[in-house]
Every structure is written in structure tokens, then in C-alpha cells.
Amino acid sequence: MASSSSSGPSVPVVFTTQTPYPLPTQKFMIPATWRRFHLSQLINKALSLSIPVPFDFLVKKEVLASSLGEWCAENGVAEEETLEIEYIESLLPPEKMSDLPHEDWVSSVSCELQGYFLTGSYDGAVRAFDYSQKLDTACPIHSAPISSICVVPVNEDDGSHLVASASHDLTAQLTRITLGAETSRSQLLATLHLHTSPLASIASNSTGSHLLTASWDGLVGLWDTKIPTSDEVPEETIDHERKKRRKLDATAKPKRKAPQAVLKSHTLRVSRALFSDNDSKTAYSCGFDSTVRIWDIENEICTQTITASEKPFLDMIITSDGNTALAASTDRTVSLYDLRAGVVSNTLSFLHPATPSCVAKASSSLHQIVSGAYDGVVRMWDLRSTKDALTSFKAWEGKKKVLGVDWKRGLVGVGGEGGLEVWKAGEDGSKSG
Amino acid sequence: MTATEEHRRKRKQPVKDDATDGVFHKAVDMVMHSDEEGGSIASDTDDAVDEFPGIDVHSDTDEDDSDFEDDDEADEAEEVLQSSDEDNHIFPKAKTIISDITGQPKRVYPEIEPEYDSDSSTEDAPNRVGNVPMHWYDDLPHVGYDIDGKKVLRPARGDELDKFLLTVEDLSSWTSAFDKNTQMDKPLTTEELDIIRRLHANEVPDAEYDPYEPMTEWFTGKGKEEIMPLSAAPEPKRRWIPSKWEKQKVMKIVRAIRQGRIVPSKPKATAQQQFYPIWSEASTSHAPPLPAPKPKLPTNSESYNPPEEYLPTEAERKDWESMDFEDRERDYLPQKYSALRLVPGYDRFIKERFNRQLDLYLAPRVQRVKLNIDPQSLIPKLPSPSSLRPFPIYKSLTFLHNDSLARCLSVSPDGAWVISGDDNGVVCLWEVTVGREVKRWKFSSKVGAVEWCPRTDVSYFVVGIEETIHFVIPPNLSPSVYNLTYKLLAPATLPSPPDVPSAVKWTTAPSSSWSINLPILTVQLPQTSGLPKQLVWHRRGDYIASVSSGSNLGGVWIHQVTRRHSQAPFKKIRGSVQLVLFHPLKPHFFVATQQYIRIYNLSEQLLLKTLVPGIKWISSMDVHPSGDHVIIGGYDRKLCWFDLELSDKPYKVLRYHTRAIRSLHFHPAYPLFASASDDGTIQIFHARVYNDLMTDPLIVPLKILRGHQVKDGLGALQVKWCNHHPWLLSGGADGAINMWCS
Questions:
Q1: Is B479 within 8 Å of chain A by CB?
Q2: Quick one: which of A148, A218, A231, B474 has the fewest CB in 10 Å?
Q3: Could you report the per-residue pLDDT of B213-241, keeping only the tens digit for each?
Q4: Is A310–B436 a contact, with Cβ atoms under 8 angstroms apart?
Q5: Directed axis angle between helix B34-48 and helix B3-28, to 10°?
């Protein structure tokens, strides 16, 4: 390979990868004028792959965007120095699949269910769209804006799904939604009563046995998903509206559910509370007090606090291995925190030009995340390359805020001011989409 | 003649001489004044030594003179003067006769005839004006007055020709002089002429004085020896005792030596060679002469053998030659010589030197005193803004009021919700972090002010529109908060009405028809009170003060929510009230009129202080959460910081905005304040206040936020900080409410 290079300077390179397409460990002399495309062709030819796989190349935590020689000149690397280049499967440019306008803003999107998109909207309704862009069901379950929804992965025998939604009306609700064109219906099962301020998020654990709610009053509520047979919380009456409530009693009323535990430690609004993917005993939360907290659920104590300085967090995800947290804050960064270290040191930050409101991780890849920002741009990042986004796309025309993203099965659901947009991105997008 | 006779005679003679001297002197008086004094002194001395037969210079002259005279008489070939002396009989000759009575010889002088001849002193001068300056009579026809008081007329005087003729005709005119007293020529007397002659001959002017007279032997010779001492008085005692004055002088020296003023064995200053720095500059107050500017050094092209590229081409040479002397870029053409010895004489040398001299002396040389100050050193040392984070730096989101001015806004005490009012009467409730409108109220007229109640156990806000203040409950409250709020604003039992009926009416919406879309409580201000420009809560959330635009009582009302009672705190107030504020800790009340801030103690009803910001028209005011500092903004772009402990004059005046300041707000927790201006910018300042009274507040300008469009001359209208976070909300004339995030 090195001998085939054209005349001109060349750069010694060693390729590494974590993809299932490894090259033998060998030093290559690559012409300095080569770009990503040439390198990708080189690897494809070297492995003689039947279906060409595009690759991206990371040089020292940076995606190679220019030619190798230019990169060396920019970063002051001598051409004799051996470069270690990691190649990753390239993210294809995202394609817009569908645009599903809503009457109101969409605060939260879930692509959890195969074949459907669930949205929680500011008009208080949970909507389900199937992949043919048809509104499957719309259930106005809240009287106030929904701030977050999640699908509780419980295996219901009749094919219905349990959806939890958190709202500004100070409650979260568990709704059973049966999807399907004709049979679609929804049933309100329980309302979760704890918070005295609007709720910010709701999340379920991987088994669907527990829920976590985060609220503006600084509390994190831990709930099980069993539907109680009777009200666990007495109804708080509003004095002068007693008569109206009595009337409502006649209809089938959802049961009022009390929390299993309340996690108190945040001093300001909690913006996100999450379960660990692997460990059912651990939960994470972040809030406007610039802290990321790790909770021991069984003992209901905060085991660790990561305090950032002046970074009110808006959203957070935990990587699949449970070691790092990615939190979006109002100082226009998405920061990477090592949960094992316990101290904030040298955090990696993904800089945004506008406030990042939401982050989501790819279901398939360990390293890829997507973030939506108030400038209406959704950016995809590789965690190994903090400098630039891998790719980005703008949802909607004009300046409309992105409020929620979800990335599952190669589909990115983008919810926000303009409704819902679905984009195809990721390596398995072609299979599912 | 016996010795005594001789003696007597000798003694008498000087007296006579004196007399003659006196006469003589009087005669010469006209010309010489100084001699008279000398004569009188001489006579005095003569008087003093009359007892002692001193050496008299004139003693023997008489005889000698007479001898001389005799000689002179004998030969009177010349010495006219001498002879004239004789003729005039100045010296009357005495005769010695034997007295008939005593039988002794006596000297007899001739009778003095009282005629003009006798004595010059008796000459009758016709002019009796005395010794006055005669030029007094210059313009008069007379020259004085005679003894009878008659005018003495000025004698006729001839012209120069007459004078000349006179000198020719009259020989005596050579010996005449002008007499001022009579204003005519008078012939000089012979004595005067003699004096003139003597002076002319460098002789002693006194004719009587003989410089060579023989010595008179008084005490030598036979019979003249003095055997006995002249005085028999015993030697005085002082000859034997030591002198007191000497002793004093010696003691003075001794004292000086003791005190060290005189060092006895002081080494004599060796005669050092003194050097005079004749070449060094004398220290003068003048500035030293400025050095002349140096002439330019020659360049390569002036070389006798310049490189080829410096040589002019033929066209350049022609150009140069055709140009005027003044237009030439340089006054020579480069020329090339192969060797230095071929270089001809420098023909422009004199001209060049001459021009140089012209330059030097015609160009005024002034030393310009340039202040060599680094401008950076004049800037006060301020910490860098990046070290003072966090503060708002970017626009996170925008909330739009369509087609209207976003005139007022307020942030809820928990920092999560914003209400904003516009000129169409629309009040919106929206989330701070998302910017999503949750609810909207429509009022009948434009909204003047909105303000959240600072209480955290209840949640409501007030909206000021024309002559009315509405109390509104936001949606999505927890039941406990809602119940408490409802009970507060619409209590089941109304508190007893105040004794004095107020002009302000409190109306609760009836519970049957009330919904969350309507204000639950309405305060009707008096008629013609106009739009409430400002609503401000007391920190406990029970009192709210409103300032209306057009009213007689200054438009200030303080409303108490629990008692449902309103009162006007001021019976009359000077000037129109612009703004009011409650002190955050004390029962003090700030009232801003157009130019002054007055601070009242509400509990004691006293005027505590008047602040004079020096602003033409106050537009905005805020008090620091500590209560010790007030910032005041004006329509004349100035922002004044008052330290209430210090003075009623501003501690600092900032003028950073280019247009009128509209709004100011201190952050309740962070050391920040913001100012909004009609230039569409918002400026963020770091304002750290120290508990230490000695340390001045630190004010650092941090950031200018630009994002509001200027519309109809109005820019940013109001700024409010978010509690708990360094986030800023600003409403502008373009209808946008921006949220600025750190």
C-alpha cells in the first residue's frame, strides 16, 4: 500500500478500531494528501469487503475533516511521527423521514415502541404515531403541559403498553395505551401524587418495575409501577370547588398513588432522574443546583455528588456502561462526567452555539449521542471526538426550539416547537427504516 | 615790643584775618557756596584753640604779605589783581597811635563809610526776592521786587548780535557774567577774576594762603624751653587698673572659643587651587538650548559610485531637469565615478550650507513637553470579567408579544415562571427555561406593571392597568398553596373596614362566577389616577405600593392585602413621584421624584435623607439586597450608585449607555446588577458590596447584551433577574422578552 502512494510526502499511520472490521497491526505510509474518503476506500479494499462500509477517522480525538497533511500542519505534528488513527463506522448523513406537526409544542419524544412514536405535548396529550405518519391515538390525559413521557417496559399480554407521563399539573400518570388502528384506546390507571411543583421528568428502569420522577421542588420520587386498588393518597380538596369534584367522582377515576420513596438532596429544581441501565439499585439525577447525584435506591441515600460550577443541568443521560454521565447545561455545553472518579476533573465538553435542551444516546453504539438545542439544530456526536459534531441537521424552518430527542433503531425523533420530526440516522437505520 | 606784646599781637592778627576771610568769603558767596562752610569751620577751630597758641597758618602772613605788597607796590608791572586789591582797599589799614587816655599805643582803623564802596555785603541789591529759583519769573515782565515792594522790571536783553557787538565794543564784557538775580550781565569783581585766574592756573584759589610759609618756633630756642609739665594733675587711676573694656573683649573671645565658634588651633585653610568650571553649563532657570536637528545622512544614491539601479535613466534625468527646484524630490542626481579621485569639486557646498543655516535659524525650535504616561496605567485596576463569572452572556430564548411593547415583566419568587405584560393588555405566563406560554390573560387596557408577590407560601401576582390593580392566581398550583392563596385574596369573612373610608375600593370576584381566567381581587384606584406605572412589593408580601401616572396625591398608594386597605402615605409631596421602593430590611421607603430621592421612615413618619443624584429626570431605581446601596438611572443616560452610609451624593456615576436608562435591577443573590436602555442594550455590572465599612463597593462592567431592536426610540424597557440563577430577562419595545443565560 505504501509503495503505491503517489509522489509527495507521506505520513506513517497505524490503524486501530473497535468495529468488527479490524486491520492487521501494521504501519502504513499514507500520502499526506489523502482524505477521509481515500482512507475509507483503503480499508474497504484492504479487507476486500463485499458491501462497502464507509468509515470515519479519529485522529487524537478529532474527526478527520481535512487531508492528513493539513491536519498535521494544523496540529503541529511532524510528518515523521507515527499517527494512530482509529476508524469508526461512518454516520451517514441523516435523512428526514417525516414531519408530524402538532397543535402545540412537543416536550418529549419516545421511540421505544417498535413501529410507533410517542410524543408528550404541551397541550397535555400523549400522541402515538405509527411509522406511516398516521396519528394512531391521542389521549388528552393531563390538564397541563406534559413535560416528559416514558414507556414502561412491562410485558402486557394484550399488546397494550404502559406509558408514564409527567406534567406541570404536579402529577405523573400511568396510562395504558393499546395501539393499533382500530383498537387504539387509552386507559388512565393511576396518578402519582408527591410533588408540589411541576414535574420535570419521568423515567422507568429497564425492567419496568419502578419509576423515577423529578420535580421543580427539588424532590425525586421513586415509585413502583403496581396499580393500587385504592387511593393511597387522600384527595386534597380545593375548598371552593368541592361540588365540581364530586361530579367527577362518578366517572371511573384513576387511583391516586403514593411514592415508594422520596429522594431529597437537591437544593433546586431536579431536571432529570434516571435509573442505571444495568444496576437496578442505582439512580442518577441532575438539577439546577449544578450537581449530578448518584442514589442508592434501597437505602434512599445520595451516595455521591458531582458538583460542577454554575452549570444548571437541563438533561442528562448515562452511558450504557454506567460509567459516565452526559449532562446538558445552560452554559451551552454538554459535559461528560466520570461517575467513578467522584470528583470533577478535566471534564470533556461538547460546545453548542445555543442552549442544549436534551440529549439522547444511540441504542446501538456506545459512543454516539445526539443533542438538541434551542437553535433548532440536532447534533450527533461521537464521545471520542469533542471538537466537532459528527453531523448535524436542522429541524423545521425558522428558529424553533428542540425540546426532546430520542434515538432508537436508527431513528431520531425530534420533538419541539414545530411538532415532531423523524430523521433516519445510524448504522442500523437502513434495516429498520 | 615785649614778648607778651608780641604774643598779643600775634594773637590778634588772626582775628583780623578771620574777619577779612569772612568778608572775602562773603564777597565770593555768589559763586562758591562750599567755601563758606569751610571758612566757618576754620573760624570755629580758631575759636576753640584760643587759649593755646596753636600753629596758625596765617600768623605770619600779614607781615609777609605786607612785605609782598610792598614789593608789589613797587613793581606793578603785572599782578593787576594785587594792585586792584590795593585800589579797592579791601584790607583797611590800621594805624597805631598813642591813646590819649591811657597813654598806651592802640590800633585805630579807618572809619567805615557806609557807602557802596565800603563793603560788598552792603550793596543794595535791587531785587529782593531772595534765593528763589529765578525761572519762576521766566514768563513775567519783572524779575522780582525791590525793598519797597515795587516790581523790578526785567532789563532789556539784546539778541546774539548785540552780545557780539558788545564783546567787540566793550572790553569789560569779557569780564562780566550773567547775574540771575538781576537778569543782566554784571562785571566781575577783581577778586572773582583773581579766583578764576587761580583756578585756571591750578593754584590755590585763596589769595591769602601761602603754602610755603616759614615755621614758627614756639618751644625751641632760647627762653622758650618748657621745663615744667604742661599739667600738674596727678596720673588718673585708670592708668594702673586693667581695662574693663579690654576685659570684655577678651571675654568675648574666650566665650567664643569655649562655645567652639572660634577654633584656636584650626588648621589654616590651605591655599587650595581653585578650579572654575568655565566649560560646564551654568545652572540657569532657562531651558538649555535645544539641539539642532541632525541633517539627513546620505543614502546610497549619494555615493560617488552608486549601484547601477540608483542611476537615473535618460528620461528621469530629463524629468528632473525640467522640474522646478521646489518640486524636485531630491536636489541632486546620482552620478557615477569610477574612482574617488575623479570626483569633481562639490559645487553645491555653499548652497547646501546656506540652506542648512536657514533651516536652523528660521525654523522655530520648540521643545514639546509630552506626557509620557502609559494610558493603561490610568485605567483603574479591575478584575477581569472572566474571573467574575457567572453572569449572563448569551440569549437563550425569546418570548414574543406580537405587535406590542413588552413593557413590564416579573419573575416568580421560585425563579421558574415569568409574567409579562404588553401595551395591548395581554399578560402572559410562561416558563423561564423553555419559553412556553402557559396561560394568557387579556385586560381592557394597556398593562402598566406586573409584579409577583414575593411570598413563597402563596402564589399570585398583581397587574396594574388603568386605575385598577388586579390580583391574579396562576394555574397549576399545588392544592395547599392554592387554598392559602384563595383564602388570602378571597377570605370568607372580610376584615373590618377601616375607620376612615378610603377612596380605594377592594372588590373580590364572586366565587360563583370566578374562574382562574379572571382576576380574583380587584383594587379600584381613585378616578383620574391613571395608569399605575409601578407596583412594588414589600419583602414580606403584605404591602404593595403603587405609583400612578396622573394624580394629585403624587399617585402613591400603599395597599395592605390582609387588611384589604389602601392608604396614601403622603398628604402632599413636592414634585411628581416617579418611583417608590421599600427598603429590604428596615421600615424605610424610598420615593423618587424627578430629581431627588427621599427616604422616609414609615414607622416614625420622618424624612430621613434626601439623595441628590444630579440627574435631570430619574427613570429607574433599585436598592441593593443589603439595603445600604441604591442605584438610580436617569433619562439623561446617567447611572448613579449611592452608598447610603456615605453621603447624599453619588458614590459613583456611570455613563455607559448612549440613550436613556429605562430599568435597573439588582440580583437578589449574585453580586450583579443590570441596566436596560433605550439604545437597545442591556449592561451587566458586577457589584460586590463588602460588609467592611472601609472597603468601597467594587463595580465592574461585565457585559453588554445586544438583542433588542430599537423601535420608535425605545429599546429595552425592563430587566429582571431570575432568583437562584444568574439569568436575566429583559422586555423590549420590539415585543420580545429575551432570556439571557450564563
A1: yes
A2: A231
A3: 888 888 788 888 777 777 778 888 888 89
A4: no
A5: 160
